[in-house]
Amino acid sequence: MATLEIDHLNKSYGTLRALKDMTFSVESGEIFGFVGSNGAGKTTTMRIALGVLRPDSGEVRWDGRPLDLQMRRRVGYMPEERGLYPKMKVAEQLTYLARLHGMSAADARTAVDHWTEVLGVAARRGDEVQKLSLGNQQRVQLAAALVHDPQVLVLDEPFSGLDPVAVDVMSGVLHERAAAGVPTVFSSHQLDLVERLCDRVGIVRGGEMVALGTIDELRTTDFSRWRVVAPDAPPGWADAIPDTTVLEVDGAATVIELTSAEAGAEQAILRAALAESPVREFTQVRPTLTDLFRHVVSADDAAAAAAEEKAA
């Protein structure tokens, strides 16, 4: 397997600039989470990678070469909008799609049997898609992306509408494909799943990549944060501690950001807490991916509000 490269993609619709030098890569066997608000540019990027849209500039490469039509036949794509024929039977439809990707009739039937079994819809092979539950339709949609043994996976909201059991099944499939060396890009608003499944994550805002790295890299902040549980401490007990900012107070628990990088500076927080109360917990905390996403979105909203105010 090789690397999928998204290199400085730009795309505008009239005065709307949907992508601004969108750049990232996905290595062989890597699961890459692509997250952002609605309209941030995720689907546009995926559609350009699939050749559905043409960029104004920039390039998509596979193994160092432009991703041409022949290579795109080796990509497994799962759109956010279900793209299945509702009145067509499951096995018939999956076989048809596999044949479109160049598989023989026998190989297509074998692949359909395998993936419907793995994804838990083998008993529904003879049913029309429209008669399936939304969750089972989603499983069939993933089978359609996998049935031709793709070398790259591009999945737009693959976990939408799934129950926990189906989520576990799909998660297992993604890990199995990654172990086989298949690079996978998937977008999702279920950030707990992204945090759990992905090797690296890119956060998109306004058509730009604004944060990119492993979960550990993204969760590393300039200043350390500490959670203190001091049940007898009076309100505001931490407000006067030097080089700190109180971020959150929830009952007896207080989250404090330490703005000093000096070794052992956190001990000032502990001493201040012990002076007021027994301390039941004193632990360092790091932001979750959800926290990071909220920070990015709030920054976007603040910028938009500022621009609107300036225009007014």
TrEMBL record:
<keyword id="KW-0378">Hydrolase</keyword>
<dbReference type="InterPro" id="IPR025302">
    <property type="entry name" value="DrrA1/2-like_C"/>
</dbReference>
<dbReference type="InterPro" id="IPR027417">
    <property type="entry name" value="P-loop_NTPase"/>
</dbReference>
<keyword id="KW-0547">Nucleotide-binding</keyword>
<dbReference type="Pfam" id="PF00005">
    <property type="entry name" value="ABC_tran"/>
</dbReference>
<dbReference type="GO" id="GO:0005524">
    <property type="term" value="F:ATP binding"/>
</dbReference>
<comment type="similarity">
    <text>Belongs to the ABC transporter superfamily.</text>
</comment>
<dbReference type="InterPro" id="IPR003439">
    <property type="entry name" value="ABC_transporter-like_ATP-bd"/>
</dbReference>
<keyword id="KW-0813">Transport</keyword>
<dbReference type="GO" id="GO:0016887">
    <property type="term" value="F:ATP hydrolysis activity"/>
</dbReference>
<protein>
    <submittedName>
        <fullName>Putative ABC transporter ATP-binding protein YxlF</fullName>
        <ecNumber>3.6.3.-</ecNumber>
    </submittedName>
</protein>
<feature type="domain" description="ABC transporter">
    <location>
        <begin position="4"/>
        <end position="231"/>
    </location>
</feature>
<keyword id="KW-0067">ATP-binding</keyword>
<dbReference type="InterPro" id="IPR003593">
    <property type="entry name" value="AAA+_ATPase"/>
</dbReference>
<dbReference type="Pfam" id="PF13732">
    <property type="entry name" value="DrrA1-3_C"/>
</dbReference>
<dbReference type="InterPro" id="IPR017871">
    <property type="entry name" value="ABC_transporter-like_CS"/>
</dbReference>
